[in-house]
Design a protein that fits this description.
Three copies of one chain form a homotrimer. The first copy, chain A, starts with a strand and ends with a strand. Chain A is an alpha+beta fold. The first copy, chain A, has helices at about 20-30, 55-70, 90-100, and strands spanning about 1-10, 15-20, 35-45, 50-55, 100-110, 110, 120-125, 130-140. In chain A, about 50% of the residues are buried. The first copy, chain A, is elongated and about 50 Å long. Chain A contains three helices and eight strands. Chain A has a five-stranded antiparallel beta sheet, covered by helices on one side. A three-stranded antiparallel beta sheet of chain A has the order 2-7-4. The interface between B and C is medium-sized, with 34 and 32 residues.
Chain lengths: ~140, ~140, ~140
């Protein structure tokens, strides 16, 4: 069994961002030499997500508005107790639960085994900080 | 390490459906010959889910109503910008994030290693189209 | 390829609880002897979650309040049809979908390959019953 590990680093200029990282995961897969196996791609930070969906700007706008409705930003420590720690990012911890921490992708014949529209995104909900995504590939 | 790949195809007659696919995943596991390992089961389309929950019709009714409240269908492109592309399925992309893209299931002694009520479902949120689920099994 | 399986048992005194199980997963990893691979940790019950987030009491309070808003407890079988079965836990099935069934964690050099704040939690939404979490580790 082979295994391969790689970190991707991000620092988004705004609080929220959706970045297509598919080609970076494909590059890691090529470096791994794995032909059949599984690729785990996860946010290493708890106010960020890795998810698979459509690379369409209108949808990303909709995701942003929708997440703000489901888990609104509110720095007031009376609203979110987490913000009593001095942080203002309780909402980001919730947005990340909706969008998910990780994806596991099948590797078949040396490629990410994807449907026609599947793309991997890094979802940032508390940006302006350096953060990491982990890629771990196992197989042979 | 063994690996095995199988696609399941679906075309649901209505917009929304929850289909119990547990026996189809069990059949794939038997075909794979894997005794110890992991099974990844994922929707290959971004307006559909694979998830594990209860095979109970009342609960599926509740899931449908609840998802409609959290991410209502609205074809109006002023409501969801994604629908400016000519699609009307922005809500389906959101429902799929709540219910999830994939499950990873442990394989022990040649069987899906499940608790008493765990069953695997295909969740369709934009039906009347041919769509696929991927099963990828690795182990030995 | 090595594989290792372990169950953790819980019976929480209240309906809802978030328990940090990171050290128990680390102990299982040590027992497995796996140096490079993947660890799957999943709830074996469909009204409970396993998720990764912050070990901060204020945040857990916020998660509880937020989940109650998104999927309120209501024993009335006219509100949730699932409760016509005699259960009163339809809301718990929904809360578990938001928080997720499982996490997959990379194993690198014999350790859980985590970012600085990642901790694994068991999330209980219908407690006062004996329930299990499954840890399945594969690798070498």
């Amino acid at each position: 069994m082979k295994s391969y590990r790689k970190e991707l680093w991000f620092e988004t200029p705004g609080r929220r961002a959706f970045l297509n990282i598919t080609s970076q995961v494909e590059a890691a897969l090529k470096e791994s030499g794995v032909q059949e196996g599984l690729a785990l791609v996860n946010a290493m930070h708890i106010t960020a997500s890795v998810f698979i969906n459509d690379d369409e700007q209108g949808l990303h706008h909709d995701f942003g508005k929708w997440l703000e409705q489901l888990a609104p930003f509110d720095a007031d420590p009376n609203h979110y107790h987490h913000n009593r720690t001095g942080e203002d990012n309780a909402d980001a911890h919730m947005k990340r639960q909706i969008m998910g921490r990780e994806v596991v992708v099948a590797i078949t014949a040396g490629k990410l085994d994807f449907g026609p529209w599947e793309r991997i995104f890094y979802g940032e909900f508390d940006g302006c900080r350096r953060k990491r995504v982990l890629i771990k590939i196992i197989g042979e």
